[in-house]
Amino acid sequence: MTVNVQDAIVLLGDSITEFSFAGNGLGARLADAYNRKFDVVNRGFSGYNTDWIIPIFEQIFPTQHQQQHASKVRLLTIWFGANDAALPHSKQHVPLDRFEANLRHIIHAVRSPESPYYSPDTRMILITPPPVDPARWAAWLEKAAPETKGNPPDRSFEQAKRYAEGVREVAAREGVAVTDAWTRIWEATGRDERKLGEYLPDGLHLNTQGYAVVYEGLIEAIATEYPEYHYDRLRTVFVSFDVIVQNPEEYRELTKKRSAFGN
Hints:
This protein is an alpha/beta fold.
């Protein structure tokens, strides 16, 4: 454990977020791009939906009082829908209207001055769930858990599409940036369901190629909506060594923490 000296990007989501630090995924790419500028914090919870994440959010996001003694959360990505969009017989399913309400709840918790989690320096980006390949997902489940053989499908392509549309609608109504993972992955396949496996090898979770598509969209959203938080606009919190070697006798002064914002 180290002292929090850098502000943070927090990635809030389900398994697609949790797995994003492996295999040059989205989280790993962000950590590399923002190295020594912002810390990238993975708060992905495999299997979770938006009902279950709200009490988690209330424990992991700093309250106004805690923010006085912690680094600032500069960016918060909110990436849900893959589990909420499970079909109604699944215990992970959250009806679309409640899914949208849950997203608004998180947004308002961060944005409302009356909220204990109010954080005026935090910018939010919603990410839509990607498409799903139900047959591929069912085959993967059957292999991983043979007892599921013969069970009705728990995902559908059209259902995932509806929940992606719901995310876009919430983002538009709330004035929050959005990265449309669903459309970007779908367009990358040439709108061919048979090619979804190139980006979602098990039919639900992204591989390196899939994360690369979403990363590109996320960086575009930051550059367009929150350019002051783009990695190219930031400097390292601690100076590079070549600054020190020019005046080594001043190393204690030169190695003091500085803001990532500045020339």
